Amino acid sequence: MSAKQFLAELEAEGADLDPMRVDDPQTSRRIADRESAYHARRRDRALSPDRADVFAAGGSSTDANGGRSYAEVMKLAEIDREEHRVRQELARREREDVDMDRPPVVPGEPVVQETPRRRARRWDQTPVAPPTDNGAAVSVAKSSWDAEEPSAHKPSRWDETPRAAPSTGDGVTPRKRSRWDETPVAVTRSRWDETPRVDATPGGTAAKRSRWDETPVNVNSNAAGGVMATPSAAAASGVPQTPLAFMPNATTEMELRNMPQSDAELDALLPAEGYRILEPPVSYVPIRTPARKITATPAHTGFHIPEDGSGPRASDMPAVAAAALVDLPMLKQEDMQFFGKLLEDRDEAALSIDELKERKILRLLLKIKNGTPPVRKVALRQITDKARDFGPGPLFNQILPLLMSPALEDQERHLLVKVIDRVLYKLDDLVRPYVHKILVVIEPLLIDEDYYARVEGREIISNLAKAAGLATMIATMRPDIDHVDEYVRNTTARAFAVVASALGIPALLPFLKAVCRSKKSWQARHTGAKIIQQIAVLMGCAVLPHLKNLVAALVDAVEDKDQQKVRTMAALALAALAEAAHPYGIESFDIVIQPLWEGVRKHRGKGLAAFLKAIGSLIPLMDTEAAAYYTEEVMSVVVREFQSPDDEMRKVVLKVVKQCVATDGIEPDYVRRQVLDEFFRHFWVRRMALDRRNAKPLVETTVELAKKAGVGVVLDRLVPDLKDESEAFRKMVMDALEQIVAAMGLADVDDELEARLIDGMLFAFQEQTTEDVVMLNAFGTVVNALGTRVHPYLAQIFSMLKWRLANKSAKVRQQTADLVARIAVVLRTCGEEGMLSNLGQIFYENLGEEYPEVLGSILGALKAVVNVIGMANMEPPIRDLLPRLTPILRNRHEKVQENVIDLVGRIADRGAEHVAAREWMRICFELLDMLKAHRKAIRRAAVNTFGYIAKAIGPQDVLGTLLSNLKVQERQNRVCTTVAIAIVAETCSPFTVLPALMCEYRVPELNVQNGVLKSLSFMFEYIGEMGKDYVYAVTPLLEDALIDRDLVHRQTACTTVKHLALGVAGLNCEDAMVHLLNHVWPNIFETSPHVINAVMDAIEALRVALGPGVLINYVVQGLFHPARRVREVYWKIYNAMYIGAQDALVPYYPRIASDERNRWARDELYYF
Amino acid sequence: MDRFTLNSQLEHLQSKHVGTGHADTTRYEWLVNQHRDTLAAMVGHTHLTAFMALAEHESMARVRYNLKSKMIAPCHRQGPTPVAPVDGDETADMDTSL
Fold this sequence. Notes:
- The structure holds two protein chains of two kinds.
- In chain A, 63% of the residues lie in helices and 0% in strands.
- Chain A is an all-alpha fold.
- Among the domains of chain A are: 667-769; 773-876.
- In chain A, helix 27 packs parallel to helix 29 and helix 48 crosses helix 50 (1006-1023).
- Chain A starts with a helix and ends in a 23-residue tail after the last helix.
- Chain B is mainly alpha-helical.
- The radius of gyration of chain B is 18 Å and the shape is elongated.
- Chain B is built from four helices and no strands.
- Chain B has a domain at 25-70.
- The interface between A and B is large, with 43 and 48 residues.
């Protein structure tokens, strides 16, 4: 194939192929693409309408600000539950009807299994006003009621959207009306279309003309009423941002609407004749995972109606930075539906205040979301400052839908969450009506996979709780506690735990107790237990003061009569509490030990796992005898469960073994006899090595067992596994070995086992195909632990090392070099200098290594060898080695740089005399480049090396190099040079450096002078009290610097004064210090933050050097100055001084004459 | 870290300590604090207490008790009649020479 063919092929693939498209859902930046099905359930929740704020000033509990009241919400929740039950029931019946021979399977909540109570009330009377046709006139409460209503079952639904019929009617489609035709927005759940996106876009397939094709016309002809198929909360509340606030509601609404209709319903709806039921296409496979559905339809809100005909249509706008957005950041395609409004060219003067506000908020949000950091910062500050002017409604109505957007990315979410956080502070109790909305959006963060997202979520919710107050939080979240959806209950429980940590457990306790004992629904009890569990996880030992109450709340739940789930959750909560309380608080658990114990005997499967976990967590809290008793009892069950195939159970069992074995009560002998064999038979199997989450607890438990039963017996069982076929398994064994040996050494191991151990380790080490740091660590640890005992095997190890160092694979060479670095000390203690020299020679020859990673390791190994055998005995000699290192200094790789500079520094420190001064000067020049390395460790090592070299060959030449380096442009380089100068001054005594340095100050160049000052500052910091010999020498220089025009100059001079003053405190240099203070003092009114900081520091330091008595004479001059700005500065200095030396100030306060009301004289001071 | 947060942080830190002041601190507050500090110093340093006990011819415990009680209202007029103001005018009351 020629290149042209390839090109043609590429072209054929179409222009719509986006090269930047992210295909892999795992690496996609969009959150929606990555999240699991469970996490994606957050989209099922609707942003409920505002709630009434009963605490609002003057507000009655009924309807102060148009929000829903608690009673209404509770009623709706009740209806929701009922509806869920009915729908499940319907689904069940339908399935029974369809195929009688299949037994009814009821998925999801077991609530259905209980015999459903029918309540007639709901169908007879609707608790809310009946819906009307006029969308605009619908009240807030009503519209949302509709949003949560099950669409298809209710006849009133059809009254509400009367346009559906006529529009499809006048289309007079030749095709028969089939049931999927009536909801062409069937993006998420339509039954048969596999490419829902096509359907969603207007003007898609010509075959399916739906009413959506005609809606724009409709819009133009109609003014406001009747346009919207779904009167949403936001639309009705008068805020005209339909597509935005509309969106999440629409999502739910869509899903409800597009629920599969049962055959019975369809029969009722459609005339009997003229219709026939089509078979689904053969190739049709329904999409079952919600996550996939979302990725399939990025423009998931589907179609929305533009405000008016002239406005640009969001869906067909390209990603542009349009002319209208002069000062706004780029808009992405997905942003259009939120920010499309900003593109409309409207006359600002003609807009109403609300519209203006909305545009302003949108603008700011866009800047925060897509802008560059400085733009974002300004916008964030603006939105925070104006939060109260904007009001909570407009703000949250914009922010929250944006957060629910499926196109959201991590960074954007972080920023928006930050906005909420800032705004919350400002709004304070104004947020109350919006608490639920915010929670709906923020709660999913609590179960996010990303740790930082979880922390952020907690932060927001705790701030929310502090702003809204406990009562509001409980009233808002109470309806969700027994929500039908497990997802909602889960997130609510976590949110409650956060509230408890924010407002204190005691405040929440009565509520928790009530919830845990709820008679009405088991879901409430379950959630109650879960809240307590989450509190324990979140707050740790802070639960201790309330432990008794929390446990008491769980007592009933542990013995719950009719729900296994509640018992399990209660046991898990107790386990979490016990772990949080460890090692205190066993007396609080007294009341539950009995039920837990019975539970362990009674239950099987998941329930047993939970109860075992609880008992296992309680045992470490008990005293020795009780622990021994319970351990022995529980161990029989645990050992029985060793063979359980259930993963969850195995994890729990591992944990229980670990906890039980760690207690004092259990005898080592018991472990050896009863536990070890079974444990190894069932847990040390290859399957466990496959998953890191299994392997880690297994290794930890094994280490714990070794601690109790002894290293010998455990190693005896582990060592044979070192020769297992599976590499992952060998690695796990090595990991366990390493941890055991690191913790307990190898004194317990006899010669025979020792031989087997080394043999196995050599096998495992040589057979590894992927070089892992675990192997390396284990080998190094074991060899070091053996010490001289390893001598007989050294020949073997050495030949392995040699062979591997000559290996073709770079990874192998690198790992081997690392290993040598670790075991060099042992080689020396075994008296194998020959081997060391041999290795040194090999490394020396390998210095031409091309892979930087390997070269770095080789240098590291060389350093270890040099350290161990010493400079004088080094083979090859240092004078040969160092010239080979000089060119390597130029290597840009960080690992190489770090190791080589360490090695060179070490040689300069210990064996500088082996190398000619000229070579050292050459190295000095190379080192200058290292001063601008990115890693601090490298810069530090370079600076230290300067010191060593200067010591070796005298400071003059080195200093000359460094001083000329002060003239370079790069700041980083100059800073490091100043540090190096200071170090040279420190190592070679200041008097060798100071004259040249002070002479350099005369160069009329700002950078150089600043560099000199900075060097002085570092120097005085390093030399400390030695500075007293140089005070009078540098004072004129500092004097000059402190009266310089340049701000930075004075700042650096102040820093120098600080270090100088701290160094000479109490060394009789007060005269010079007062002189310097007189020069520092006029700078106290500087405003630049760095300068004022430096000045304050200098004054503090002078206070230390001179004592507060001198300083207070300066300070009292301004404490009561008529000008506030003067007073502020003086009080700041006074406060610093007062905090630093309060006691010492006592005799120095000014004497004040008494007046007729007060005695100001401090008589006690005048006793004689 | 801009200049506002920097300063406000420092001020916040300082304000946690009793005895620190700010631009609106009154003369009275400042002076009362000085008195309390003085009394506290006398109670806190055993040598000073011992010295005072000697001077007042009281036991050390009594002296300590007196000092502590005085801390409640250190500057209120009590006991002996006030010493007349040295120069009689307000401007001289801030005598910084010790």
